[in-house]
Structures are given as structure tokens and as C-alpha cells.
Amino acid sequence: MKRELTEFEYDQxxxxxxxxxxxxxxxxxxxxxxxxxxxxxxxxxxxxxETSFERAKQDVKQKDLLEISENTEGFKGYPKFLGxxxxxxxxxxxxxxxxxxxxxxxxxxxxxxxxxxxxxRLISFALLPLLLLYNLTISANKAKQVLQFVFQxxxxxxxxxxxxxxxxxxxxLSSSVVFGLIWLFVFLIVPLIRDKRITKVKKGI
Amino acid sequence: xxxxxxxxxxxxxxxxxxxxxxxxxxxxEITQTVKELTANKIQISEGAMYSxxxxxxxxxxxETESVMVGKRPRVYxxxxxSGAAVATEKIAELASFIKSLNDVIDFNVNIA
Lengths: 205, 112
Known about the structure:
By secondary structure, chain A is mainly α.
């Protein structure tokens, strides 16, 4: 018959987790439940609590607990609200500021230069770093993400330069084109060629 | 049992697949389900599984719910609305990857 842990035994698991360096409340509850299930499983095989808990601790080692704890803190360090939705809204907001600035210029409203400075600072010091952070947090292909970021950076700057000065910056445009081409070549054309070659080789076989 | 290198990169997709087929699951349940479905060939370590679950939660793919089971709380995971789309995309990507892998290394197996 399955024996459930007593409150005292469960508290011992909580104490062990805290002693092992797990500090976040939610994580303590989650890991305590995991260890409790394992302990109850061994209790069901006839072992006493101490032996069962020792066996559970062998299954979920202290180094695993520390790894989980550290990783969780790291992941939770990235604020949830800074997701795709937020970044798109932020980009739209900056674009609106640019359009507003154009209207100010044509209406000869003073201090439109201030709007330019604000929008450029928002792009350089807020939107682009947030984009990089978001891209690097989502998955692990760093090379692809960094290239994507550099491409986005050049493209944003090209558009910004055009909206501000009404002319295309050759440096930013050429870098956008170069990075765009690298992107196309590395992540689209090469895999496509490789795919076709493999199919041909297979057909030959 | 498969090596860590082979499992790397697939743990998140395994979790997403299981959660797309079950409304909600908790950590221990996920490890056991994977073991049962694969006849113990895939054993996800607690360190890797909880790290993946927390990463998916932090990025908004999963959400959690704490439910009292007896006298103790249990943390359940479920896909968010946007997470369901991510799951479909990732599962399709893995299926395509396995097909391509089959092209490179002819396993003589049919993958549906």
C-alpha cells in the first residue's frame, strides 16, 4: 500500500533543498514535490523514510539541484513582458515618432530635432539591444541570431537615416545588403543546394 | 540509453510535444511518460528537464499552475496560446530535420 509522507518528513525534504542552495519558493515547492514522489515510491517498496529519501537524493543529485536553481534564476532574469509582442509594439511606436517628426518638420514646428534625437537614442540604446537579448534568449543558434541582429541593426539604421535626412546612407544600405546576402546564402541557398545534391546522390544510388 | 549529445536540442521539443497532447503535466510525470514511451531509451535528467521547463516558461511558451495535491503543492505546466504555435512549429522542424537526416544517413526507415 502506498504510504504518503508525513508533514515532518516533507519538511525534512524542504530543509534539504534549502540547505542545498535552492532559494526560490516556487522552485523549492516543485523540487520538493519531485523528491517526495520518488521517496514515496521507495517507501512503497518497503524501505524506511531515511533510506527512501537517500535513494531519492541519489536520483536528483545536489549538483542537479544547483544547476536547476542557477539556470532558473538566469531564465527568470529575462522579463516576460519583453516578448515579441512588446518588441513589435515598441518598433511601431518608434516608427510613429519618426512620422510625427516628419509632420513637425513640414509644419515648421520648432524642436523637431529633439524628436530625432529621442527616436535615434531609442533605436540604438533600447530597441536594438532588446532585440539582440530576445534573439539570444529564445534559442541556441548564436551564429544565426547574431547575423540576424546585425542585419536588423543595419536595416533599422538605413530606414532611420532615410526618415531623418531624406536620403539613403550608403554605408548602412551596403551593410544591410551584404548582411542580407550572407543571410540568404548561408541559411537559404546553401541548404537548398545541399538538399538537391543529396536527393540527386540518393537517386543515383 | 541515448547519449546526452543526441538528446541535446530535442528535450524542449519532447516537452512541447507531450504538452500539446496533454492539457497539463508536472515535472515527474514528464520524465516518466518519456521513459514509458521510449522503453527507457530516452531518460531525461532532472537538471536538463527542469532547466528546459523554466526556460520555456520564462520565454512565454509555457505557463504554470500550482495545484494542491493532498497537503502539498504541485506545479503543472501547460502551453500558452502563443506556445501552442511554437510547439507546432518546433515539432514540424524536428520532423523535417529527421527526414533530412534520413537523407544523409540512409537508415532504411520510413518516417511518416
